[in-house]
């Protein structure tokens, strides 16, 4: 009787081992597919959000957006000048002092006359500044 019970236990043991092995393999395959092909679990591929490369919509946006107004260095306050790249409080005060001593700037390039502003700094500032009366 004991031998028969041992045979039944061994038979069920191996069935359980095979079942768990198959379960682990299925789970691993499911994880791999989900990890490397997530679109399969998000629905049909045409429902996945993809950035639009159509330039016609970009053109529409660019025509409605106005470029920012340039900062007039002849009338800007020291606080307004600090909003420019590479211009701190001290540099802004030097620009205002130079403008008060020597008069208004006749061109953007004259900004290099201010101590501490060289050609590289001027190149950074040019897209943001203007000189108007």
What report would you give on this structure?
With 133 residues, the chain is mainly α. The chain has six helices and two strands. It has two domains: 2-47; 71-130, Photosystem II 12 kDa extrinsic protein (DNA polymerase, domain 1, Orthogonal Bundle). The longest helix has 35 residues, at 2-36. The protein is rod-shaped.
Summarize, please:
The chain folds into two domains: 2-47; 71-130, Photosystem II 12 kDa extrinsic protein (DNA polymerase, domain 1, Orthogonal Bundle), CATH 1.10.150. It contains six helices and two strands. By secondary structure, it is mainly α.
What key phrases describe this protein's structure?
133 residues; mainly alpha; 2 domains; two-stranded parallel ribbon
Architecture per CATH nomenclature, i.e. the level-2 architecture of the largest domain: Orthogonal Bundle
> What is the global morphology?
rod-shaped
The first-level CATH class of the largest domain is given as Mainly Alpha
Q: List SSEs in N-to-C order.
A: HHHEHHHE
Average predicted local confidence, pLDDT: 81
Number of strands: 2
Unreliable parts: none
**Biggest sheet features:** 2 strands, parallel
Assign the CATH superfamily of the largest domain: Photosystem II 12 kDa extrinsic protein
- Rg (CA only): 36 Å
Annotated CATH topology of the largest domain: DNA polymerase, domain 1
Coarse structural class: mainly alpha
Helix content: 55-70%
Strand order of the largest sheet: 1-2
Number of helices: 6
What fraction strand?
A: under 5%
Number of domains in the coordinates?
Answer: 2
């Amino acid at each position: 009787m004991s031998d028969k019970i041992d045979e039944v236990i061994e038979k069920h043991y191996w069935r359980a081992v095979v079942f768990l092995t198959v379960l682990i393999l299925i789970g691993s395959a499911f994880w791999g597919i989900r990890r490397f092909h997530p679109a399969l679990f998000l629905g049909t591929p045409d429902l996945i959000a993809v950035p639009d490369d159509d330039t016609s919509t970009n053109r529409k946006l660019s025509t409605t957006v106005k470029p920012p107004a340039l900062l007039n260095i002849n009338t800007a306050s020291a606080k307004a000048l600090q909003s420019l790249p590479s211009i701190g409080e001290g540099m802004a005060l030097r620009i205002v002092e130079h403008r008060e001593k020597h008069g208004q700037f006749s061109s953007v390039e004259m900004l290099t006359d201010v101590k501490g502003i060289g050609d590289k700094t001027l190149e950074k500032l040019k897209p943001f500044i203007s000189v108007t009366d």
